[in-house]
Q: What sequence folds into this?
C-alpha cells in the first residue's frame, strides 16, 4: 500500500468533476498506482452501474471487488476499502479510507482527523488465484 491523497474535497452538491475523489485516491493507494491512472467514479456516465464499470476496470489487474455491509461476523483479511460517514461534510455523505484487516491504515484526506461510522467494506478479490503473485518479500513454497 502506498499512501495517495485526494485532490478534490467538495461534496455531492458540487458539479461533477469537482466532487471529492477519496474513492479514486483510496483505490490508487491499495493498488500503488498514480492517482490519474485510476478512474474517478464520479464521472461515469451511468451512475447506476458505476460499480460494474469499476469492476470491469479492475480486470486489467486480475482483480474484482464486492461490497460487504457491516454487522454480523465479518472477518476481512488484507487491504480493502472502508466506506464511512464523512466527518468533514456534514450532510451524511460517505467517505472512503483504506483498511487492513478491518482497521483504518490510511485516510486519503490529508486534513482528516477522524472517520465517521463505518457503512460498509469494499473487498478486492483475485479473479484467477493460479495467476496471483505473492506479496513482495514473501517467498513461495
A:
Amino acid at each position: 500500500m502506498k499512501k495517495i491523497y485526494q485532490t478534490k474535497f467538495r461534496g455531492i452538491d458540487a458539479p461533477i468533476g469537482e466532487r471529492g475523489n477519496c474513492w479514486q485516491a483510496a483505490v490508487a493507494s491499495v493498488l500503488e498506482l498514480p492517482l490519474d491512472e485510476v478512474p474517478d467514479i464520479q464521472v461515469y456516465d451511468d451512475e447506476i452501474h458505476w460499480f460494474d464499470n469499476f469492476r470491469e476496470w479492475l480486470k486489467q489487474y486480475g482483480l474484482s471487488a464486492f461490497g460487504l455491509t457491516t454487522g454480523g461476523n465479518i472477518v476481512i483479511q488484507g487491504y480493502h476499502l472502508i466506506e464511512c460517514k464523512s466527518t468533514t461534510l456534514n450532510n451524511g455523505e460517505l467517505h472512503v479510507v483504506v483498511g487492513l484487516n478491518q482497521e483504518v491504515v490510511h485516510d486519503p484526506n490529508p486534513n482528516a482527523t477522524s472517520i465517521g461510522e463505518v457503512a460498509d467494506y469494499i473487498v478486492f478479490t483475485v479473479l484467477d488465484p493460479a495467476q496471483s503473485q505473492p506479496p513482495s518479500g514473501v517467498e513461495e513454497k
